[in-house]
Design a protein that fits this description.
Order of helices and strands: EEEEEEEEEHHHHHHHHH
Largest sheet: 9 strands, antiparallel
Shape: globular
Number of helices: 9
Oligomer: single chain
Length: 293
């Protein structure tokens, strides 16, 4: 299998190449695309442009030489190493030369038209090659780890993660994000809560609940956290676990059925989240807390 990024177009030439896909998924009509893979080759030349912003984390491995240019200017000449971070804004052409490549990396592609906090600021950030940021690295690794367990994270979780990445990238570029100490009104919060209750089994997106509140996504996410003390995705996960607790008290309902009924992608996804929030597995909870136990 030859190396080819999932988003955009260009030209790639490589010698003695091998690519091993590890994790890949997309959300919101491919507005967010995640791709993790291992790439091995002796030499490669890449000339690539994409309509999405691109953030790449080198998870492991190295190169003996990495050279990156754009608009005729040299941006980087050195080596790739674990933990480095690259950002390429949408529409920017990246020209790269690589030698002795053996890399594992995670790539996050973000549609610039996606209306999430701070993403509009990414348009003004220049290409960053092999920088570093522990927070963004942790966020991308957490997404990769979640998927390696066989879980496809919910849309609202991915939206929250992308928002955090956007805010962090904007901060790295020296942009300050304005904050306001104002929560949701009681009636607005009740509308949002009722919507989440009614759609708990669905893949709820941040855009949906923001629309119910009648607010831009970034404003809603900030005010929701100020109201509840938790970001929307965490609130939804906790609500799903609370619903699961009630259903687990009925021993006639299979745990796998409960998982899908409350919006988890699988029984293992429910088990992992339930253990993280409650400290025990759903099966153990049922044995100890169901009637007659």
């Amino acid at each position: 299998m030859s190396f080819r990024p999932l988003v955009g177009n260009g030209r790639i030439r490589a010698r003695e190449e091998e690519t091993v896909p590890l994790q890949s998924a997309s959300w919101i009509g491919s507005s967010v695309v995640f791709d993790s893979r291992r790439w091995v080759c002796q030499e490669a030349e890449l000339r690539w442009t994409a309509p999405h912003h691109l953030i790449v984390l080198t998870d492991g491995g190295s190169t003996s030489q990495t050279s990156i240019r754009t608009e005729g200017k040299a941006l980087y000449d050195g080596q790739d190493r674990p933990g480095v971070l690259t950002f390429v804004p949408a529409g920017a052409e990246r020209i790269g030369f690589y030698r002795d490549v053996d890399l594992c990396y995670s790539a996050l592609w973000i549609d610039p038209e996606l209306t999430l906090p701070a993403l509009e600021r990414l348009r003004d950030i220049p290409i960053l090659v092999n920088g570093s940021d522990a927070v963004i690295g942790t966020l991308l690794r957490s997404l990769c780890t979640e998927m390696s367990f066989g879980h496809r994270p919910d849309t609202v979780y991915v939206e929250h993660l992308v928002s955090l990445v956007g805010l962090r990238m904007a901060g790295l570029n020296g942009n300050q994000i304005p904050t306001r100490n104002r929560g949701l009104g009681r009636r607005t919060f009740e509308r949002v809560r009722d919507y989440i209750d009614a759609h708990i089994a669905s893949d709820i997106s941040l855009r949906e609940v923001a629309a119910i509140a009648g607010m831009p996504v970034d404003t809603f996410a900030r005010r929701f956290k100020e109201t509840t003390g938790r970001p929307p995705y965490a609130y939804i996960l906790e609500e799903r676990v609370r619903r699961a607790e009630l259903l687990l008290r009925d021993p006639s309902v299979a745990i796998g059925a409960i998982a899908f009924r409350v919006g988890f992608s699988s029984q293992s996804h429910l088990t992992t989240t339930f253990r993280r929030l409650k400290g025990i597995t759903p099966r153990t909870y049922r044995l100890h807390f169901s009637p007659g136990s």
